[in-house]
Design goal:
CATH architecture: Sandwich
Strand order of the largest sheet: 1-2-5-6-11
Helix content: 10-25%
Number of domains: 1
Strand content: 35-45%
Largest sheet: 5 strands, antiparallel
Number of strands: 11
């Protein structure tokens, strides 16, 4: 009986830990030094436990793909002049008036090649900057390309 209970308890712990790891993968302590990485962290510097995905990353001339919550950003090789790379950016994913938002800093004036943003299907909680609270959102899978960094919205 003890063996069965131990196996069930271990199974439950594994399931629970894998669900939370899938929902949010924490960043490494330092910004990325490679051309790409997966993962993001929830930001807790907003009211309460605000659900804002945030990631700082460094992109090299090689380009790469990074993951910020349920959004991935793909940088083609030489998307900016080599003299401006490597460059560190920060991306935040949150909601505004129910719309999904990805905001980049610093802003950039233009890329040599389009950068692709892929939003995965997501049903969950995000902090809404207008409502100043976490809200339940549902977004469908979608993609778009951008020629500079600032702030982009989707439904």
């Amino acid at each position: 009986m003890k063996k069965i209970v131990s196996v069930l308890l271990l199974s439950l712990i594994l399931v629970v830990s894998s669900v939370s790891a899938f929902a949010v993968t924490p960043d490494a302590a330092a910004p990325l030094q490679s051309s790409y990485s997966m993962g993001s962290t929830l930001s807790h510097n907003l009211p309460g436990d605000a659900a804002v995905y945030e990631r700082s990353f460094t992109i090299t001339p090689k380009g790469g793909t990074i993951q910020v919550g349920f959004v991935s950003i793909t940088f083609p090789k030489n998307f900016m002049p080599a003299s401006e790379l490597p460059r560190t950016f920060t991306a935040k994913v949150f909601a505004s008036g129910g719309h999904g938002v990805i905001e980049f800093s610093p802003d950039t004036s233009g890329f040599l090649k389009p950068v692709r943003i892929d939003v995965q299907a997501y049903r969950g909680v995000l902090f809404d900057e207008q409502a100043q609270k976490n809200i339940v959102v549902k977004y469908h899978q979608q993609s778009f390309t951008v020629m500079h960094f600032s702030r982009y919205c989707w439904q």
